[in-house]
Sequence to fold (405 residues):
Amino acid sequence: MRFPTVQEQLDIIVGNVVEIISVDELEQKLLQSLKTCKPLKIKLGADPSRPDLHLGHSVVLRKLREFQDLGHEAILIIGDFTAMIGDPSGKSKTRPQLSAEEARENGLSYFDQASKILDPEKTTICYNADWLGKMSFADVIKLSSHYTVARMLERDDFEKRYRAQEPISIHEFLYPLAQGMDSVHLKNDVELGGTDQKFNLLVGRDLQREYGIAPQVCITMPLLVGTDGKEKMSKSLGNAICFNDSPADMYGKSLSIPDTLIETYCKLLIPRNEAGAAEILEQMEAEPRAAKRALAKKIAALYYSEEDAEGAETHFDQVFIHKKAPDTLELLEFDEPSMPIINLLITLGAAVSKSEARRMIDQKSVLVGDRKVEEINEAIDLEIEPKIIRVGKRKFFKVAIRKTF
Fold:
């Protein structure tokens, strides 16, 4: 294919980037690519420590998509082996390790989820257990000889833990080396990552040089702050919007972000060639609420469709503004003519135990129709007509006795 000029490519690549190490080397690689008509290999790794990708991952995935659109080869590495070690980046204590089975299971859906952003036909997917799992102990010793403890302790989180006399396990030192071996194996030209991955990316660059391979260019992207407006987006912190969330959940969670994040979310989450970002930013000062609604709708549309986003907005207005149950509730039928509210909540999956169900009732968060349930021993009559059970702000159930003919 015909590549754009080096300057045209650089103008796109530098968008939203925090750091490029180094711009001169990237320019040279792009120039060589242009001369030889050979695409660059662009690597992005994702450890399947959890089964869901979230919008924080989309920041680097969209940069990878930009490289794809420029004609370069996108390589997505599912770190099923490195996930068993546990990335120590940004951690104040040793991260729990996953089993091989857990890591592989979590990684199964990563490619499908990432394909909501990447062009799947132009994406190479790899599992790093395919090469790291074959290394012998002698290979690991040889690999370890290329890096010193002093260099490892230059890493900010390791240094803080060392000074605080917090334990650092030897296997944590092996994590950046293992990730670096991905770059040695693939001989990639560029590696992408969040700012928290800078050390790991630089280790890969150093190891490529040690193994006689042209060192990769390292490109770091901003970390997306989660819906709480404080911490980086993470499912474990409960502040994430996941790729697999329903359109309604995407819309609702996006509306919960602080107004101060509207501009950042527009900048990092809406693709460069997508319409809408400019209009949202124009609305920000005069109508921040309208701007946030437009942003939430845009995010839902990016991962589903305009129609789904419209439905998500309608659902939100009906449930949270007009305080009505959704129109699309499935009718759940039971054989009993009545059921104790505590048992009903557990059967519906709204509570996992009787104590949790009692707590919900005590907190006045359980409603039958428009009436709050006050008594923990109340029996709900299912015979007269279908009942709408509401638990908290988001959970609705439509229940009735099973019809017999």
The domain at 6-221 is CATH 3.40.50.620 (Rossmann fold). The chain has three domains: 6-221, 245-321, 331-401. The first helix runs from residue 6 to 13.
